[in-house]
Amino acid sequence: MLNMGGPSTVPETHDFLKNLFSDGDLIPLPFQSILAPIIARRRTPQIEKQYEDIGGGSPILKYTKIQGERMAALLDELHPATAPHKAYVAFRYARPLTDETAREMKADGVKRAVAFTQYPQYSCSTTGSSLNELYRKGKTGDFGDGVEWSVIDRWGTHSGFIEAVAQNIERALEKFPAEHRSDVVLLFSAHSLPMSVVNRGDPYILEVSASVNAVMDRLGHANPYRLVWQSQVGPSAWMGMQTGEALKGLARLGRKRVVLVPIAFTSDHIETLYELDLEYAKEAREHGVEVHRAESLNESPVFIRALADLAAAHLKNHSGGKIGPTSVQLGLRCPGCTNATCGAQKAWFARAGR
Ligand SMILES: C=CC1=C(C)c2cc3[nH]c(cc4nc(cc5[nH]c(cc1n2)c(C)c5CCC(=O)O)C(CCC(=O)O)=C4C)c(C)c3C=C
Ligand SMILES: [Fe+2]
Ligand SMILES: [Fe+2]
């Protein structure tokens, strides 16, 4: 289960940020190995404070472990041919990092593995970065010799995922008086991307939009909605409109009932618990807006069942020869991609599945 990860405790914040700013696939910096520790050190106190305010750390590891264990148990029933299944977590910037997980899988003697991204929608800066890291460790045998790999690299329109999000929206809508419910604006919010990434042809914006469209289809388009973007960092241009600005704009237009919907994360972390709940929702309430947030998927049984269904279908179709080791879409690099590792990674996964 691949994801970005987050510091489980406040003192782990510095190392998390150092790993994050050292990742050239996420943030390409000149003199990266020198600048990354400097930026991380400067940013640490502010981000530590945010993790303190959300209860002393990121819950992403806790939820990923729960999701993984329950998914593996369901998978034993859904696809007994490959049982027993075991879920491992590999985070990109926080423990357990890929090399720690590789050691564990090697010690367990794993011979068949599925790299299962926990980002529903694909971006080179998220899933792409995790796959590049897996490729670097895999090609040097860190996971052991002769491991057969395949990849679940995106699933943003999977019906179970869409259903789980839709149910959480319906629960949030119930918090509004029945007579106002159909006026409530659904404000889908996803982590933004720098325009430099969007403009090289990254598919994330399109895939998040497809998720939103699928959720709205499931809800029968009963409410007005927008997709907006949060958490931009630094001075460069990022995809907009920004979530905070959108809430203020809606207040100005007199649209004072809003459900905020996180659509690109599967569990709570700083972006939902701090940015959405403590910053934006609070500010919006000051502008007289009634805001409720759709819960993150966290322990949603509908969502965990969706993960198991995805994995079962993948294992069945891959071993039946119906699909290759990766999706067809993963094989296409962004038209503007100049990162040689992306090309080598795709070629390696295409071979590692045979
Ligand atoms: C779909 C999810 C995410 C995308 C796309 C994404 C792109 C992206 N992020 C940065 C820079 C930072 N992100 C940071 C934190 C962070 N980012 C995501 C998800 C996506 N990022 C999550 C889930 C988290 C938080 C983890 C948690 O435990 O809560 C941070 C660190 C926090 C901070 O310093 O503000 C940075 C920096 C870039 C540059 C980028 C696209 C290229
Ligand atoms: Fe981010
Ligand atoms: Fe790329």
From TrEMBL:
Q: Which GO terms describe its molecular function?
A: ferrochelatase activity
Instruction: Give the protein's biological function.
Output: Catalyzes the ferrous insertion into protoporphyrin IX.
Where is the organism placed in the taxonomic lineage, from the top? Eukaryota, Fungi, Dikarya, Basidiomycota, Agaricomycotina
Under the heading Gene3D superfamilies, the entry gives: 3.40.50.1400
Asked if the keyword Iron belongs to this entry, the reply reads yes
NCBIfam families membership: hemH
Give one Pfam family, short name only.
Ferrochelatase
Give the record's keywords alphabetically: Heme biosynthesis, Iron, Lyase, Membrane, Mitochondrion, Mitochondrion inner membrane, Porphyrin biosynthesis
The reply to whether Iron figures as a keyword in the UniProt entry is: yes
Q: Which InterPro entries match?
A: Ferrochelatase, Ferrochelatase_AS, Ferrochelatase_C, Ferrochelatase_N
For this protein, the record's SUPFAM superfamilies field holds: Chelatase
Q: Which domain of life is it from?
A: Eukaryota
Gene Ontology biological process: heme biosynthetic process
Record's protein name = Ferrochelatase
| Family membership noted in the UniProt record | Belongs to the ferrochelatase family.
Localisation: Mitochondrion inner membrane
Give the metabolic or biological pathway.
Porphyrin-containing compound metabolism; protoheme biosynthesis; protoheme from protoporphyrin-IX: step 1/1
- List the catalysed reactions: heme b + 2 H(+) = protoporphyrin IX + Fe(2+)
What Enzyme Commission number(s) does the record list for this chain? 4.98.1.1
